[in-house]
Specification:
mainly alpha; 4 helices
């Protein structure tokens, strides 16, 4: 479930990035300061818009740890059933 959510959110960001729609946040806010940092404007740039790059990291922090935990639990349960 979290992996599916992560992929859906990335697909939405992909559509926003390749269209004229953009996400606007309050000027001088925390997300704007993050998106203008060197990391999100030069190093981590899967999208053209720096705000989308910040949101991808945010989604990764929220969704991917639960995906890894669910996968580990699945492997443990599978090992228990096959034993």
């Amino acid at each position: 479930m979290p992996l599916g959510l992560f992929l859906i959110l990335n697909s939405i960001l992909f559509l926003f990035d390749h269209s004229s729609w953009t996400l606007y946040f309050q000027e001088g806010g925390y997300i704007e300061k993050l998106s203008n940092s060197q990391f999100f404007s030069e190093w981590f740039t899967p999208y053209r818009t720096p705000v989308h790059n910040v949101l991808v990291i945010f989604f990764m922090i929220i969704c991917l740890p639960e995906t890894v935990i669910n996968f580990i639990e699945y492997l443990k349960a599978k090992r228990t059933v096959s034993s």
